[in-house]
Design a protein that fits this description.
Four copies of one chain form a homotetramer. Chain A is an all-alpha fold. Chain A contains five helices and no strands. The first copy, chain A, has one domain: Orthogonal Bundle (Helix Hairpins). Chain A is 73% helix and 0% strand. Chains A, B, C, D: Pfam families: MazG-like. Chains A, B, C, D: It comes from Pelomonas cellulosilytica.
Chain lengths: 105, 105, 105, 105
Amino acid sequence: MDIPALQQRLRRFADERDWQPYQTPKNLAMAMTVEAAELLEIFQWLTPEQSVALSDDQRRHLGEELSDVLLYLVQIADHGGVDLDAAVERKLAMNAIKHPPLKRS
Amino acid sequence: MDIPALQQRLRRFADERDWQPYQTPKNLAMAMTVEAAELLEIFQWLTPEQSVALSDDQRRHLGEELSDVLLYLVQIADHGGVDLDAAVERKLAMNAIKHPPLKRS
Amino acid sequence: MDIPALQQRLRRFADERDWQPYQTPKNLAMAMTVEAAELLEIFQWLTPEQSVALSDDQRRHLGEELSDVLLYLVQIADHGGVDLDAAVERKLAMNAIKHPPLKRS
Amino acid sequence: MDIPALQQRLRRFADERDWQPYQTPKNLAMAMTVEAAELLEIFQWLTPEQSVALSDDQRRHLGEELSDVLLYLVQIADHGGVDLDAAVERKLAMNAIKHPPLKRS
């Protein structure tokens, strides 16, 4: 996935619809959370076991909600001045320090 | 960003910590929403204008929260059987149909 | 608002629909978050000023979403064994200590 | 629970700290969602069974997060011009129509 190219496409998409005034990081963060909750809704009444064995319809729905979250996420990074690839690498390194692997005997 | 490679790294990370039993799509969806709200928290009392002009500290914090959301997002796609690159392209096509661009005179 | 009476009504409502198996605190917490995000959606593209001056339709919609959140909230308290009236009083006391009032000259 | 009296106390609390400029319905909706997600976090890695049998510590924590959500909820109703008691009764009536009870033989 080419994040900078995706961000360019989304900027052009917003420009062609005069959406720029709405696209503050604050508003985009709200929109991303709304989409995260729509994804959460898929799973709210499922047992853990059911959540592992999704139907084709549920999987297609999940793909749409994951995409909605991701599209807002890359726009927040863009408008907030965050290099997402670099931030992810830094976070992975932090996580490895915070949670050391189990010692296996 | 190489999504399948990232998913592989996160699977190995979870394996080395015996986290697999916790990683149902249901639980991962909850965790992603929690991280989305931590990102939201950065902006909750800011004016729209302040949310556009983040300090270096705020931008670093934003990068961490964006990464947390993204890392859960790619794990949900992985454990839920969703091809994220394909899902995003399909969603972009759907969005273009749903929201036609403005006609400019 | 009589919280225990409301909790009783919601238990009977769930019983009459065989919803008890779904009503774990975990699932109810997910449902409450989903409703909180539906409320958030009302405001996501509004300016702060617009969010203060809602139309009658927006106010009616807001009332429905507030109610949805509240109904799940009292059910979580009920199923989680929390005395909500007491918890709120304790939290108000904690907040007063955490955030002392401004000294006025 | 006396909602109007609680709203009065929270208005005075905000006044004594000069918080009024921050308390738009938009910002309060963000804050409520952040608190809902902190409640969600309690349950994210628990099994459904564990979520039913909370420890005293978890129950105390749950009471704090429920209160945080409720305190923002009544402030949104207050600043958004919603009569919460009336809205809840209307929603209960709507839910009874939307979800008819099961017929028992």
